[in-house]
Write a structure and sequence with these properties.
13 helices, FAD/NAD(P)-binding domain, 30% helix, 479 residues, nucleotide-binding, 22 strands, 5-stranded mixed β-barrel, disulfide bond, oxidoreductase, Class-I_Pyr_Nuc-Dis_Oxidored, alpha/beta
């Protein structure tokens, strides 16, 4: 027996479940298949983001930041105490509870929107057919007019440092430590590496991050990246740039890591080693290539501007098609595709994608850095607003970092916004909206911002582009 659907989505993460919900809202009979199993073998929708990435990591980041503030900041507020301690088991239980609440919410949303949620594996058979294998049950075949691949991605497993799930772990394993490692090594100083390093460093680990590239956060404006590096180093993170790992061997008591810096080989021993060097697309077992779906040399599914593969009726979205591997990018692709299948005209602006590192201070950016703008041939003008001059940041005991605006000197149009500072993740939406509406510096300068707020600093940074800042020294720069 074959079950008939209009749309079958294979993958229930940030790309798949929004695509399924929006498709159902638009009148399509929709099924969403997801194979995720948590470590206790419980199935869950939400993919890596909700179960082993974005959400649990933010829960631990928040907990560890509170601990850090209790140790280093509350005294300035006139608050003192001595009976503070970390209960890691309770901290981990809270993290898991936050994730489970959200993944359970997806099931409720499926029910409310009449999406058929199926827990198990999906395999493409061609001609609009998908084989569904439940975690416990018999296989069945689903038939659909449209099949959407939304299978996400997984951490890259290095041959020189293979995961053993004991001492050498991926980002998921790094969220489930049952005790704080005395010494922690991390390969990769990208978003994941820095966030995980911050969590465990705050909780007491002596943390070393080994990054092969010579520059810290090369995707971020380098003025902001250097500022962030200075703050992280001051907090105790030992970030070693230009450190290329040669091998990592897990022993009974430690992981021995050999790496090279400036041609000199060095060795380091860690209780735990996190490998955070990127992610790869999940296409194994999907049977996509076997039915003719084009896949590139890195394993990503090839699609056109409307997420169509080369096989009629088969589409792909999210991490599995490459680009920025971010949950919000995947969500928007899922919604856009569902609306396109309903005949709507939708388009995403990939030049205005928000990106955030949830450390303290946070790092957030959208659009071009100064380096990227110059490389594209723009004559740029830049401005900066330091949080040291912001009243709200001062009151929060968090007057660190700054906001940098990169604008076109000829048109005044904002090209990029890069920030380091308190809760800049929440300020980023204004920057993204500005890029989306092709805002000029004058547009933002004429927009009133509340006082005292952190958002004032965005206004100050824009004013400083043309030497008009009120609460900071103006340093007009054009190049």
């Amino acid at each position: 027996m074959t079950d008939q659907f209009d749309i079958v989505v294979v993958g229930g993460g940030p790309a798949g479940y929004p695509a399924a919900i929006r498709a159902a809202q638009l009148g399509f009979k929709t099924a969403c298949i997801d194979a995720w199993l948590n470590k206790d073998n419980s199935p869950a929708f939400g993919g890596t983001c909700l179960n082993a990435g974005c959400i649990p990591s933010k829960a631990l980041l928040e907990s560890s930041e509170l601990w850090h503030r209790m140790q280093h900041e509350i005294g300035a507020h006139g608050i003192s105490g001595s009976d503070f301690k970390v209960d890691l088991d309770k901290m981990q239980a809270r993290k898991t509870a936050v994730s489970r609440q959200l993944t359970g919410g997806i099931k409720a949303l499926f029910g409310a929107n009449k999406v058929t949620g199926l827990e198990g594996f999906g395999k493409l058979l061609g001609d609009g057919k998908v084989e569904f294998t439940p975690h416990n049950g018999e296989k069945q075949v689903l038939s659909a007019k449209h099949v959407i691949i939304a299978t996400g991605s997984s951490p890259v497993n290095l041959k020189i440092a293979p995961f053993d799930d004991k001492r050498i772990v991926d980002s998921w394993g790094a969220l489930d430590f049952t005790e704080v490692p005395k010494t922690l090594g991390i390969i990769g100083a990208g978003v994941i590496g820095v966030e995980l390093g911050s969590v465990w460093s705050r909780l007491g680990s002596k943390t070393v991050i080994l990054e092969a590239l010579p520059n810290f956060l090369p995707m971020v404006d380098q003025q902001i990246a250097k500022e962030a590096l200075r703050h992280f180093t001051k907090q105790g993170l030992d970030i070693r740039l230009g450190a290329k790992v040669i091998t990592a061997k897990s022993g009974a008591k430690a992981v021995e890591v050999e790496y090279e810096v400036n041609g000199e080989k060095k060795k380091e021993s860690f209780d735990k080693l996190i490998v955070a060097v990127g992610r790869r697309p999940n296409t194994d077992g999907l049977n996509a290539k076997e039915i003719g779906v084009a896949i590139d040399e890195r394993g990503f599914v090839k699609v056109d501007a409307h997420y169509k593969t080369n096989v009629p009726g088969v589409y792909a979205i999210g991490d599995v098609i490459g680009g920025a591997m971010l949950a919000h990018k995947a969500i928007e692709e899922g919604v856009a595709l569902a609306e396109q299948l309903a005949g709507h005209h939708t388009q995403l602006n990939y030049d205005a994608i928000p990106s955030v590192i949830y450390t303290a201070p946070e790092v957030a950016w959208t659009g071009l850095s100064e380096e990227q703008a110059k490389a594209k041939g723009y004559e740029v003008k830049v401005g900066s607003g330091p949080f040291a001059a912001n009243g709200r940041a001062k009151a929060m005991e968090a007057a660190q970092g700054s906001i940098k605006i990169i604008a076109d000197a000829k048109t005044d149009r904002i090209l990029g916004v890069h920030m380091c500072g308190p809760y800049v993740s929440e300020l980023l939406a204004e920057a993204v909206l500005g890029l989306e509406f092709a805002a000029t510096c004058e547009d933002i300068a004429l927009t009133m911002h509340g006082h005292p707020t952190l958002s004032e600093n965005f206004h100050e940074a824009v004013l400083s582009v043309d030497g008009r800042a009120i609460h900071a020294v103006n340093k007009v720069k054009k190049s």
